[in-house]
Amino acid sequence: MTRVPPELVDNPDRRRWNDRYATSEYAPPTFTPHPLAELVLGMPLPDGPVLELACGPSGGALLAAERGREVTAVDVSDVALNLLADEARRRRVDYLITLIAADLITWRPPPGSAYALVLCIGYWDRALFGDAASVVAAGGVLGWQALSLAARDANPRLPVSWCVRAGEPASLLPPGFQVVSQDDVGPKPATRRRLVARRVG
Ligand SMILES: C[S@@+](CC[C@H](N)C(=O)[O-])C[C@H]1O[C@@H](n2cnc3c(N)ncnc32)[C@H](O)[C@@H]1O
User: Which pLDDT does position 186 carry in this prediction?
Assistant: First the structure.
């Protein structure tokens, strides 16, 4: 079982997402890798570990581990992490995956860490983005997909802070990154923006 730190017990995001992962909306998870995970794991990457943020029961984390990568997978939902842990054990790659139950509002990768790939799908926090980009290793890749402001046309109650603005997230990359692609994706109207960037400097 994933250890839930005391400060996370009453976390509203944890409660909300634990409920969602326990219901039929997500259960049982398919563990199918997200297209962005498949895309970036198919790119040339330097040696080194993978960091997946807001991972959920991630097929991408499993795929990375099956390819021999050490993976650190972070999510606020211990229900999701336990689902991922069970599947990782079933596939005998659990020894490669470190699961961290944490709130990404405050959690940050350890100082000095460097990842061949940093991946985040379905979550947006502007402050986290810069800190996540900073731990991409030389030659490594950052893959990020988040809602864009177009998502608010369909659902005006979506907080603006959950959505990337025009040009983001590429416009927020620190120096030393080259944008491989940034596209609006999803069924029309496209409400998600997908960034792939490589650290070149
Ligand atoms: C839309 S789901 C995406 C899950 C997965 N990346 C995927 O593509 O299927 C959003 C994920 O963000 C996690 N999450 C939401 N708020 C969070 C927070 N404050 N800290 C860490 N994870 C959070 C949820 O538990 C959930 O797994």
Answer: 87
Sorted by sequence, the CB contacts under 8 Å of residue 36 that are 6+ apart come out as 60, 119, 121, 143, 145, 194, 196
Q: How far is the CA of 191 from the centre of ligand 1 (A)?
A: 17
pTM of the model: 0.97
CA of 167 to the centre of ligand 1 (A): 23
Predicted confidence (pLDDT) per residue in 74-126, tens digit: 999 999 999 999 999 999 999 999 999 999 999 999 989 999 999 999 999 99
Pocket around ligand 1: residues whose beta carbon is below 6 Å from it? Answer: 13, 17, 34, 54-56, 58, 75-77, 80, 103-105, 121-123
Q: Which numeric CATH code is attached to 6-199?
A: 3.40.50.150
The domain segmentation of the chain, as residue ranges, is: 6-199
Location of structure tokens 């330097």: 46
Q: Which protein residue's CA is at the shortest distance from atom 23 of ligand 1? A: 76
